[in-house]
Amino acid sequence: MKIKTKKSFLYSFIILIILLLIIPYALIKYNLHVLENRVVNYLVEEKGYQQNELQSVNGAFGKLPLLSVWVIFEDEPHIQYQYVERESIRQLAYTVSEQGKIANLNHHDIDTNKLLHYDSYDF
After folding, report:
1. pLDDT at residue 65 above 80?
2. Which stretches are transmembrane (predicted)?
């Protein structure tokens, strides 16, 4: 009986550890997917963009902000814009995209007055 009890405990412990690893990962992926959809809806419904104007929309898990979405627009592929949800969807930042880095564009070379999709907000 003791061997069966030890095996049962071991199997239960392993399953618990696996669940503790999988559940947070699944929740983060789900929340990123929801945030991506909210950002797309914001850009289309509130800002007036067409879906085909968005080259890419990618959720990101980081330190601060914990969840954000990076958007690259078709007509400005060298810049990516970061969006977060704080009471509502807001553009938080911009940076050079991978395509911009390949073209040797530097963040310091960017003039915010010439950015096509830059929104300045006071948080």
Report:
1. yes
2. 9-28
